[in-house]
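Reviewers of the previous submission asked for a worked example of the structure-prediction workflow described in the proposal, so we include one complete record here. The input consisted solely of the amino acid sequence. No template or homolog information was supplied to the procedure at any stage.
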Amino acid sequence: MFDVGFAELLIIFVIGLLVLGPERLPRVASKIGSWIGQARRMTRQLRYQLEDEVAFSERRDQAKKLVSDLADINKEISDDVNAAVEPFKEPLEKPDTPTDKDA
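From that input alone, the workflow returned the following structure tokens.
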């Protein structure tokens, strides 16, 4: 995020010591550290939420594709079953051979 080296921290500390004095500097430094910690936690939480949202969106897209594929498979199976059953729907013709009763 910020590339702050030892020299920059030393300069900030000296300026803070001159401006705030030795009594208030530790409290201010503690407060600033607390704010930085809160900011880091918030950015981490936001990143996790965004990653979760992206993963959820991908799973939702996969589910939609799966439902579409299943509907296509269902249609194919239904068509195949109807084609296989179609010959049996026609009425059976009576055989031309005489039965035992006719003889």
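The CA atoms of residues 9 and 68 lie 59 Å apart. We consider this example representative of the routine output the project will generate in years two and three.
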